[in-house]
From TrEMBL, chain A:
SUPFAM superfamilies: Periplasmic binding protein-like I. Belongs to the leucine-binding protein family. Keywords: Signal. PROSITE patterns: PROKAR_LIPOPROTEIN. Residues 44-372 form the Leucine-binding protein domain. This is ABC transporter substrate-binding protein. Gene3D superfamilies: 3.40.50.2300. The keyword Signal applies. Transmembrane segments: none annotated. InterPro entries: BCAA_transport, Leu-bd, Peripla_BP_I.
TrEMBL record, chain B:
The chain crosses the membrane at residues 6-27, 63-84, 96-116, 144-163, 192-214, 226-255, 267-288. The lineage of its organism: Bacteria, Bacillati, Actinomycetota, Actinomycetes, Kitasatosporales. Keywords: Amino-acid transport, Cell membrane, Membrane, Transmembrane, Transmembrane helix, Transport. Belongs to the binding-protein-dependent transport system permease family. LivHM subfamily. It is a multi-pass membrane protein. Its main location: membrane. It is found in: Cell membrane. CDD domains: TM_PBP1_LivH_like. It comes from the Bacteria. The keyword Transmembrane helix applies. PANTHER family: AMINO ACID ABC TRANSPORTER PERMEASE PROTEIN, BRANCHED-CHAIN AMINO ACID TRANSPORT SYSTEM PERMEASE PROTEIN LIVH. This is Branched-chain amino acid ABC transporter permease.
Length: 392, 296
């Protein structure tokens, strides 16, 4: 999922200023007194975690932080890095691209930071990536699905792009003998727009259904009555709702109230409790996801059990991805055998080349971008479920 | 076609419910309250917290929204806007500072709701009220849609009557025309400003609760999106006119519905706001706006 800040113009200004600062700081590079240039690992490897702890996407930041905290606790308890401890310095970006860029610049200047765990919002990530890449500071993102986030070998992402596992929706619809579909997508969000305009039509060709209508809604749209009526009157076999978390329950409810009884397919924004307010009205909605707490993978099960034991709740995809990001970074540091930013980047590249098992199951990388098998998640009216492909 | 008319009427009523309180405060005491969206959201949010603990019927939830909205709005007036008006060097500066003050107050309410809800949508699923959809063959209509349209018409009529026919309403209109002369004529500006802010906030609260029932859920940020639409409806209809706000909301809703039905939907804001812009070029005061007379 890609999230946008309304202050994009401010973000551009911040990026401009930050690039200038980064250019100046990058000239020096790591010095001999840096923790990063010491042979072997220092007693503490410090990571800056830039997350949305407040603001419109706080649900992503707070859940991601829980995943990171669990991973760091395990890493340190297991002495995964020997006597060296991983230390996370959590910073709130407040869903602001300027704030995120400012924090990244601070991390670049302060050589005690070995790497960054990046924010979920594409707007913030695209503000950080150019300066981090130029300054040689590794950044591992979760979410942040738009173009411009992965700009080189120092920028990694451990949330697979939705289009890479979205074929699960096609397989599901084929098993339901779906012949026609309608698409409703948030036209202000690049990831959702790409899914609506490219991925779904490609699925239609591959799995033998026709896209009858494809409509965009505004990024801040609150009411979908007209869209729902239009779709319900056309009676397609399936509807793709590619919207943001707060829009999902409203659109699903209004579609059902307008008498639509066909399949509803969404994306990961349907998870994380966002369908709870729709309750039983949303029963039967499915969405391909990179993670499900009900997945039967051994590595997923271990993560879910540990998470439940620590927090007393079921983890969502934001927590799982951030957990994997922290473990990916720890593996890279171990592989590097050093807290040097350059060595960590090389370590991350080695880990990415071999892949690893994480909360999201088996993870491989296409360049610096992760790939997972994915699962088909669903809502039964009360809880999230795992939907077996071909089930009725 | 009939369904589109019903949908446009519902959307227009949603906009009107939201815009009504904002229009009252702006058109009478000259306060453009940018915290209106957050008061709308926060009233629904407080109601959600109460309904979560005790299943309440819709009328009680609406009453809670009204009280919460009125209390917050009065607090905003007394704690933020009044001190600004007292200290500002002139009227123009006071207006600008009130705009900024409103944004600041909105930020506080928004941050609290975001913190508690973690930006996950919230609603009244525990309420005793249940949505029923009536299929009349040619249209589908829900009981919430009926409540929304009736409430918007009733409240707009009530607000219009109050301003036109009641003694306090006439005093408020006098303030809107010339605050100094109104004061010289014995109008208690402070008392009436608090009263109009209470009414404005109460309307925001009622709108917040009704809209949450209609949409099923809202998020902490929902007020911001409605703020822009309400602003457009008020400017289009003419600041200070309840009828103008109603007509502005109706035009906005009709245009949006037509664009949604006839196009892919991406152009909704561009077309509807473009039309408003064109109309304001022809009639800058809005459809029912008063002609401003300045005496030197």
């Amino acid at each position: 999922m890609s999230m946008h800040s309304r202050t994009w113009y401010g973000g551009i200004a911040a990026v401009g200023a930050s690039v200038l600062i980064a250019g100046l700081t990058a000239c020096g590079g790591p010095t001999s007194t840096d923790a990063g240039s010491v042979k072997g690992l220092p007693s503490t490897v410090k990571i800056m975690s830039i997350k949305e702890m407040s603001g419109a996407v706080a649900f992503a930041g707070t859940n991601a932080t829980k995943g990171i905290d669990l991973a760091v606790e395990q890493i340190n308890q297991q002495k995964f890095l020997g006597d060296s401890k991983l230390e996370i310095d959590l910073k709130d970006s407040a869903a602001s691209a300027q704030q995120a860029a400012s924090l990244a610049t601070q991390a670049i200047s302060d050589k005690s930071y070995a790497a960054i765990l990046g924010p979920a919002s594409s707007a913030q990530a695209t503000a950080i990536s150019p300066i981090a890449q130029k300054s040689g500071l590794p950044v591992v993102y979760t979410q942040a699905g738009s173009d411009g986030v992965l700009v080189g070998n120092y920028t990694y992402r451990v949330t697979a792009p939705a289009e890479s596992y979205y074929q699960l929706a096609g397989q599901y619809l084929k098993s339901k003998h779906v012949k026609t579909a309608a698409v409703l997508f948030n036209s202000g969000n690049p990831t959702l727009t790409q899914l609506g305009q490219k991925t779904v039509p490609a699925l239609a060709d591959k799995y033998g259904f026709k896209v009858r209508s494809s409509d965009g809604v505004q990024v801040t749209a609150q009411d979908f009555t007209s869209n729902a009526s239009k779709i319900a009157q056309a009676k397609p076999d399936a509807v793709f709702l590619l919207l943001t978390g707060p829009q999902d329950p409203v659109a699903v409810t209004q579609l059902r109230q307008d008498g639509y009884r066909g399949e509803i397919v969404g994306m990961t924004s349907m998870g994380a409790g966002n369908l709870k307010t729709a309750g039983k009205t949303a029963a039967g909605v499915v969405w391909p996801s990179n993670f499900s707490a009900l997945d039967t993978n051994e590595s997923t099960k271990k993560f879910v059990e540990a998470y439940k034991a620590k927090y007393g709740e079921v983890p969502n995809n934001y927590a799982a991805e951030a957990y994997d990001a922290a473990w990916f970074l720890a593996r890279g540091i171990k592989e590097a055998g050093s807290a040097s930013r350059t060595e960590i980047q090389k370590g991350l590249a080695k880990v990415a080349a071999s892949g690893f098992e994480g909360a999201q199951g088996a993870m491989t990388f296409d360049g610096t971008d992760v790939r997972v098998t994915g699962v088909l998640a669903g809502w039964d009216g009360t809880n999230e479920t795992l939907v077996p492909l071909g089930s009725s | 076609m009939a369904q589109d008319v019903i949908n446009a009427a519902t959307l227009g009523s949603l906009y009107l419910l939201f815009a009504l309180g904002m229009s009252l405060a702006w058109g009478t005491i000259g306060i453009l309250n940018f915290a209106h969206g957050s008061i709308f959201m926060f009233s629904a949010f407080v109601c959600h917290l109460i309904v979560r603990e005790a299943a309440l019927p819709m009328p009680v939830a609406v009453l809670i929204g009204l009280v919460v909205g009125a209390v917050i709005s009065v607090l905003v007036q007394v704690l933020a806007f009044e001190p600004i008006q007292r200290r500002a060097a002139d009227h123009r500066r006071a207006e600008l500072q009130i705009l900024v003050g409103g944004i600041g107050m909105a930020g506080v309410l928004l941050a609290i709701a975001q913190r508690v809800t973690k930006s996950v949508p919230f609603g009244f699923s525990e309420s005793t009220f249940r949505v029923h959809v009536y299929d009349l063959g040619f249209v589908r209509l829900s009981n919430v849609q009926i409540v929304i349209v009736v409430a918007a018409c009733l409240l707009a009529g009530l607000a219009g009557w109050w301003l036109r026919s009641s003694r306090s309403g006439l005093a408020l209109r006098a303030i809107g025309v010339d605050p100094e002369v109104a004061t010289m004529m014995g109008v208690d500006r402070r008392k009436l400003a608090v009263a109009i802010m209470a009414a404005s906030g109460g309307l925001a609260g009622v709108a917040g609760v009704l809209l949450t029932y209609y949409l099923g859920s809202i998020a902490a940020e929902s007020g911001d999106a409605f703020l822009l639409k309400a602003f457009a409806a008020i400017v289009l209809g003419g600041v200070g006119s309840v009828g103008g706000a109603a007509v502005g909301a109706a035009i906005l809703a009709v245009v949006e519905t037509i664009v949604l039905v006839q196009t892919s939907g991406t152009w909704v804001d561009a077309v509807s706001f473009g039309l408003i812009f064109l109309m304001l070029l022809v009639r800058p005061r809005g459809i029912f706006g008063r002609k401003e007379v300045r005496r030197t």
